[in-house]
Amino acid sequence: MINRIIAAFQRPEDGWDPIRPQYAAAYAREHGEEADETLVDALEAWIGGFAGKHVLDLGSGPGQYAVAFARRGALVTCHDISRSYLQIAREKAQASCVADRMRFSIGYMDDALCLAPGPWDLVFNRVCWYYAFDDRSFAELIYRLIAPGGYGYIDTHNASFRREDLSLSSAVRTWMNSHLGLKIGHPHPPRGRIEQLLKRHPFKRLDADYSSPGNDRIRLEKPEGAST
User: Fold this and answer.
1) DSSP string of the chain, one letter each residue
2) What CATH number belongs to 2-221?
3) pLDDT tens per residue, the chain (228 residues)?
4) Fewer CB within 10 Å: C terminus or N terminus of the chain?
5) Where are the domains of the chain?
6) What gap in Å lies between CA 177 and CA 149, rounded to an integer?
7) Keywords, A to Z (predicted)?
């Protein structure tokens, strides 16, 4: 609720951008030059190929994964809150000659059902889950965005990620989110929470990978004939 109230006064469609262009450019150089092709290969095999598939990169950042999906024939929408990131993603799309297979949507991730409703053959959400207003409602949003017979991929830092580097304020907010379910700002969710929230929805398949101590990775498959 607190995050939603704050968001009412910070609207990206009105020009507000939480990411300065200089930071976006530096982040893109360090983390967003190229997608992990091993992950892209695994996703392609899992969903039966990208060609002609409608993909939502939900929280796309500088767009390296969206471009990688488009290179393989997907029709991709980059949805992000930052104009700075989306501009970088547009430039990547042009440089890779896939601009005709990419669309761009600006807004909070939680507003994607209105701004990029789909439904989508693949919803891809990588290292940005914690920017959602509320974990429970965001899990429901993911379910609703995925088309019947479609797929979801989530990779999120959990509360163990770089815990020793947290400021006192961040540590308190992380504890409140983990133990009281009160989310203020963008604390990482406790390990295993996202899997449990997603299990409340009738997915055909849900595979959780906890091999990385600081990340929860989840693959989803929605049954054919399921509601959106």
Assistant:
1) -HHHHHHTT--GGGT--SS-HHHHHHHHHHH-SS--HHHHHHHHHHHT-STT-EEEEET-TT-HHHHHHHHTT-EEEEEES-HHHHHHHHHHHHHTT-GGGEEEEES-GGGHHHHS---EEEEEEES-GGGSS-HHHHHHHHHHHEEEEEEEEEEEE-TTTTGGG--HHHHHHHHHHHHH----S-PPPPTTHHHHHHTTS--SEEEEE--STTEEEEEEEPPTT---
2) 3.40.50.150
3) 789 988 989 999 999 999 999 999 999 999 988 999 999 999 999 999 999 999 999 999 999 999 999 999 999 999 999 999 999 999 999 999 999 999 999 999 999 999 999 999 999 999 999 999 999 999 999 999 999 999 999 999 999 999 999 999 999 999 999 999 999 999 999 999 999 999 999 999 999 999 999 999 999 999 998 877
4) N
5) 2-221
6) 33
7) Methyltransferase, Transferase
Question: Tokens at residue 76, please?
Answer: 């991709």
The tokens describing 213, both together, are 């101590």
